[in-house]
Amino acid sequence: MRSASEAGGDEPEAPRPSAAGGGRAGYKPRAFTDLTNAMNVGRTRDEGRASSTVAEYTAEAKRFHEFLAADDARTLRAVAGETCGLDMVSKRGSPPGPGGRLFGAATVDMAKFFTTPPPSADKLVLAFLSDRSLDWCCSEDKVRKIAAALNRSFGLHGRLGPWTKDEGSPVNSVQVMAARDAHKNKRRRGNVSLKGVDPIRYRDLYRFYKEHFSGKPLREWDQEKVMLYTSMLVGMNLCLRFNELCRLR
Q1: For residue 108, what are the β-bridge partners?
Q2: Distance CA 107, CA 88 (A)
Q3: Buried b (16+ CB within 10 A) or exposed e, 115-142
Q4: If pLDDT is split at 50, 70 and 90, which confidence band does 134 have?
Q5: 94, 185: one domain
Q6: Helix, strand counts (H, E) of the chain
């Protein structure tokens, strides 16, 4: 039988690597460190994230940059100190014009900030969270997204782990976590003041309780109002539980 080249066909196939690992001439295995880094999926922080999520994180990091650079990096210089703050400013903001009250935005070296954040960087994170959330009145999901975006930015520059004086991400500092917990409690208190602890205690019943019972001694409670209030609660509980049980049939 003639070969493909003798028959005037295509070029002969290149030799395939043998099962024993012979391979082509000149083949060099990858270094072991490269293999372990490639296998360590956790090192790729955006692995498995949707492109839209990564875009949102990038936009949030840009807002943080604008926050630090605003008004000649006034917040950065005030919190980190004039010397430390100016060390991260590569270009000062322009002075205000006639009738202006604010300086122009400075140019902050964000790579330097994320790589070697100042000891008070967690206070800057707190200020940014408060600024972005309208005094901590936003949803918990929004705060979580902002914190995740900043954590990603610090992680891309190698600042991982719990925040201490000079290492880790300041987003995970004790002060920031305490503020986030306080924000959650504030949100819960706001929901309780409108709806009550029990989901079946509607706003009208909560208002009725607050008007006739809350803050008053028990002997001053009107008996008919107590009976009306308790009968409504019991009736609503029975109706709700009965409807739930009917679905299990």
Answers
A1: 89
A2: 9
A3: eebbebbbbbbbbbbeebbeebebeeee
A4: confident
A5: yes
A6: 9, 2
Q: Which amino acid is at 122?
A: D
15 in a structural domain: no
78 shares its domain with 122: yes
pLDDT-derived band of residue 193, with 50, 70 and 90 as boundaries? very low
pLDDT digits (tens, 9 = 90+) for 143-181: 888 998 998 888 887 766 555 555 678 888 888 888 888
- pLDDT band, residue 64 (cuts 50/70/90): very high
Q: What is the pLDDT of residue 76?
A: 92
Q: pTM for this structure? A: 0.56
d(CA 187, CA 139): 8
**Residues 140 and 202 grouped into a single domain:** no
Decide which of 193, 218, 238 is a domain's last residue. 193
**Whether residues 140 and 175 fall in one domain:** yes
Locus of tokens 């949030």: 60
Please name the residue that has the structure tokens 């600042």.
Answer: 159
What CA–CA distance (Å, rounded) separates 203 from 30?
67
Please check whether residues 130 and 226 belong to one and the same domain. Answer: no
Domain count, the chain: 2
Q: Please report whether residue 216 resides in a domain.
A: yes
Q: Cα dist. 11→3, 5, 7, 8, 14 in Å?
A: 10, 6, 10, 9, 9
Answer yes or no: do 189 and 207 share one domain.
no
Name the residue range of residue 112's domain: 51-193
* Coil vs helix vs strand at 169: coil
pLDDT higher for 172 or 98?
Answer: 172
